[in-house]
Amino acid sequence: MKITFWGAAQTVTGSMHLVECNGYRMLLDCGLYQGRRAEAYQRNSTFPFNPRTIDAVLLSHAHIDHSGNLPSLVKQGFRGLIYATAATRDLCAIMLADSAHIQESDARFLRKHGKDAADPLYQLEDVAHTMELFHTIPYRRRFVVFPGIEAAFYDAGHILGSAAIALWLQEGDRERCILFTGDAGRPAPVLLRQPDRLPEADVIISESTYGGKTHEPQETTLQTLQRLIERIITEHGKLIIPAFSVGRTQNLVYYLNMLHNSGVLADVPIVVDSPLSSSATNVYRLHPECFNPAVRQAMLTDPDPFGFESLRYTRSADESKALNGKRRPMVIISASGMCESGRILHHLRNTIEDHTTTVLLLGFMAEHTLGRRLADGADRVRILGEEFRVRARIEQLHSMSAHADQEELAAYLGQLHGRAETIFLVHGEPAAQTLMAERLRQDGWQDVRIPTRGESVEL
């Protein structure tokens, strides 16, 4: 039995871990690495193994940093099954197609303006072939992957369909369990059910994104949204909110819906400007079984928690472009969440030098992304190949994170304390991982490791 950490090792993107047992090779996730464009393209286009030698993929959830390189894997020869929950499969169908479309659109835009642009990693045809390989499994149902290898998905409470993955490996007369947290959700998600209790495991591969942080109370979200909306009305400006199309956007709209239902939401147009966000919200509507009891109860009097009078969703490019010409106060929610691609770049390009603009960053921004540079207070930034001076106000809100913070993650892993021999911390920056490792050792964990990219461990 061997694990090799090929992605999200001392970084928060590109989740991908290779598990080998009984002659079979399986990937836990196959995500896009996001960061400096040249480095990201090199990592995403070239796998450190032959994709034809991979026998199966077990996918924790649909976020692009966990699923987004599956079409590249298929394009380069992978022909095994991709195991996931039904909601993850439904989200991947729209997210991977959107990823292909964005790559093609961004390349066309850059070339049109005389800039160098790499070829897209994959196209819609590769996405179609990828979706043919999905095989859906319900939560908490143990299934056979290969002889001597079984697995099960447990609700992670992170986004719709997200799962922790338990993998039972049989060698000889001994069975060992590897548990992969994927992205661990918070104990009381605003929309989703709380995370499942996990099975006992011998080895844990755990995320550590917020290993050194404590989130703000969720009540802060409502107060901040109300304050910023009232401010842009006073200043006749715009509130630009970069938000991941899946998870973050639906949570944000649900909070705005709460403000609307309570009668305190100011009268201002709110636009979700993202075809993917619109499609993803429809997928959320198809899976009310994933919602927590409070949301299901609220739906008895408000059947659509993702819609109200002043909210609209846009799909066409013409509708998106028209928003930049409007001078009245408005809220624009658009992807991507770290400001790396998509329509948010065009909105920032048109508003970042306007002092009446407020940009609200939600949650973690990975290193070397535009979102991180804005969060760090950069005076000037490059957007779509051009340099702009940052005159807009930059605000941050961490209460909406769908990741467990240090205390929440320690409690989540605490239920496994006793049998587990080793915890490998992945999906986190080194500083956060160091703090998380110290916290776990204080809790009595004896063997906590922070693997490097390409490091292999034999069990």
Map the helices and strands.
Layout: E1 2-7, E2 16-21, E3 24-28, H1 37-45, E4 56-58, H2 64-67, H3 70-75, E5 81-84, H4 86-112, H5 124-131, E6 134-136, E7 143-146, E8 149-155, E9 163-171, E10 174-180, E11 203-207, H6 219-235, E12 238-242, H7 248-261, E13 270-273, H8 275-286, H9 293-298, E14 311-314, H10 317-325, E15 330-334, H11 343-351, E16 358-362, H12 370-375, E17 380-383, E18 386-389, E19 393-397, H13 406-414, E20 422-426, H14 430-442, E21 448-449, E22 456-458
Parallel strand pairs: 3-4, 4-5, 5-6, 10-11, 11-20, 12-15, 12-16, 13-14, 13-15, 16-19, 20-21
Antiparallel strand pairs: 1-2, 1-22, 2-3, 7-8, 8-9, 9-10, 17-18
Helix pairs in contact: 4-5, 4-8, 6-7, 10-11
Overall 3D geometry?
A: globular
CATH level 1 class label of the largest domain: Alpha Beta
Mean pLDDT score: 94
CATH topology of the largest domain: Metallo-beta-lactamase, Chain A
Number of strands: 22
Radius of gyration: 22 Å
Helical content band? 25-40%
- What is the name of the CATH architecture of the largest domain? 4-Layer Sandwich
The structural domain count equals: 2
Task: Flag low-confidence runs.
Answer: none
The strand line-up of the biggest sheet is 6-5-4-3-2-1-22
Question: What's the CATH superfamily of the largest domain, by name?
Answer: Ribonuclease Z/Hydroxyacylglutathione hydrolase-like
- Backbone structural class: alpha/beta
Distance between the termini: 5 Å
| SS field, number of helical segments | 14
